[in-house]
Amino acid sequence: MRTRRARRRVSGATAALLGALLLTVTACSGGGGQGRDADPDDGPTEAAEVSISIAPDDGATDVPTSGELRVGAEDGTLTEVRVTDPEGTEVAGELTEDATGWEPTEHLANDTEYTVAVVGENAAGTEATRTTSFTTVAAGATFTSNWNISDGAEVGVGMELSVTFDTPIENTDAVRDAIQIVTEPPVEVRGHWFGNQRIDFRPEEYWEPGTEVDVRLRIRGVEGAPGVYGTAREDVSFTIGRSQISTVDVDTLTMDVVRDGESIRTIPVTTGAPGYETWNGRMVITEKLVETRMNGDTVGYGGEYDIPDVPHAMRLSTSGTFIHGNYWGGDVFGNENASHGCVGLRDVRGAGDPDTPAAWFFANSLIGDVVEVVNSNDDVIAPDNGLNGWNMAWEDWGV
């Protein structure tokens, strides 16, 4: 048996009311009726808490001085990273572009406890902090570093920074990279190793006058050889003064002094006699002495000379080449090559006359000025005999 449902008749007013209600529900659901019922538990999604990672682990010991310290952040960014030694000195470091990582930009000191304090935040700005500590490996031995330019010095355009070490260096790239040079205006500066205990730095061409040079010696903690670490951490700044390049012509027995591109004086000279010829090439003044003793025994010339009071002497090579005053030579200046390899200028005994050519040149020269010798019957001076790397081609410099 089938039951029939009775139909209810809907009046016109009732139908209109139902239609209005239906339209209201449809409009609230949006999207042409494709919505869903509202969930009263729905709300804004909470940002995940930032997760901070620090390597090495808290309490680690014998940590290498480079390559181990790293800080990272997940689900957020790093807002502060401070790594300090027991004296509170901070380790320099650098954030990644997205601020999710940090690494030091220098080596750590040996046998030192460091504290790492980090702050990070998530997308909602909620901060998280973490602090750890670790101790670096002790050095089995250390090496010292010495350099040739004092802080605040004004030097000539030919100056080279020369750094020497008291022990052979095996990790030459690491030590070279730990000597950071920044200039204003910017110029490329390269380092070149002469053997394994000396590295010199220079630009391709002579420095531009007025250049400011900042040297950051970050050799501390660098492993120069297995178990042997550097100790130097120092900043040195120097300025390039006016340009002065003097050319000694052995054929004409003259020296032309050029200041900022203009010849300011031509001076008669004497250079090396036959058999004692002066080196050719570009040489840099590295030392100035109002008076000094010159003894042939010290440069392999036996007892040929021993002069206790050579005036206005300026060193051009490690092997003993000087440009200096000469009070014993008579009329040789501009007339005869009579020295044992040095460049001689007329002077008086005692260095007391400021008007002699030697005294004038001494007073008008800076450490780092260039003296170039041409037309001598000898080889070009070796680039490591003094600060004379300008005699090496740029494509070979740094190799």
UniProtKB/TrEMBL annotation:
Residue ranges annotated for the L,D-TPase catalytic domain, each copy included: 244-374
Signal peptide: 1-29
Catalytic residues (UniProt): H324 (proton donor/acceptor), C342 (nucleophile)
Pfam families assigned to the protein according to its UniProt record, in alphabetical order: Big_10, YkuD
Sorted UniProt keywords: Acyltransferase, Cell shape, Cell wall biogenesis/degradation, Peptidoglycan synthesis, Signal, Transferase
UniProt pathway annotation: Cell wall biogenesis; peptidoglycan biosynthesis
Record InterPro entries: Big_10, LD-transpeptidase, LD_TPept_cat_dom, Transpep_catalytic_dom
Entry protein name: Ig-like domain-containing protein
